[in-house]
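We store sequence, tokenised fold; for instance:
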Amino acid sequence: MTWYDEEPSYVQDYQERPNMELLRYRQEKTWEIVRHFCRYVKSKDQEHDIGIGNIFIFETEPSRTAELVDVIVFHDYFPTRKRMRDALEYAKKMGEKYGKPVLDNEMCCLARANPYDMSIEMHDEYQIGWYLFELMIGKDMWSRVHGVVYPDGTVRDPSIVAAIGGFFRNRGETAIRSDVNQEDYVKRVSILAERTLHAARQNQGSDHSQDVENLLEVCEYAANLLEAGELVPMAYPPTAKIAAYRRQQNVDAMEIEDYLTELIGTLKKACHIIE
């Protein structure tokens, strides 16, 4: 935590105020070293731009580094549009005051209520440059909350890729909710599910491999309707679970029957079908 007067109170709202005299002493020692190396690096290299990765944009003036850098750099993980807007307004003023470009070189974290699409959209609105932390989904401690692309080219969430391309979800009054039963396909899959479940129950033999295949086919039918209409959580999509079932050996047919029944129930509830 930084505890500068320029910070909004909510930056400090979950931690008790520390010994401010000791904190200020340590902070100034740190900034003294940073300012020294800003001057040193520029004395050795006049060609390349330098910046300081401030934890918050509100450190810019207390650190007294704005005069020494070529680009004003900060990090941003604010969890709401209002809080982010406050930070970006401040960043814009800093850029105008010092006549320097402003760059957010660390943003977007699922664990900090700082989703990619919101953060990218806001920075684009304010025309403030940004870097994502991180692009790739690796095997380190950050893989669960950072990253866009897996090594094989698949992605965590297509909405992130869309946001990078400048396409954002409609959260306004013009947004239209989907109706996946517009052409009665929910009724169709419900009938198919009932017939498939009935056929599986009628099979009294020991080989249920064909039943499993038929049941998973109907599961995928229902899952695709649910996913197409965004009617289920996509952290672990139904189609991913179905793919996992298909990779297994000796799947329990009754387990698949239970899952199909669950999918159809979710689909009917989402489409307000009462029987």
Summary: The chain has a mean pLDDT of 94. Residues 20-44 form the longest helix (25 residues). The CA atoms of residues 66 and 216 lie 61 Å apart. The chain is about 45% helix and 5% strand.
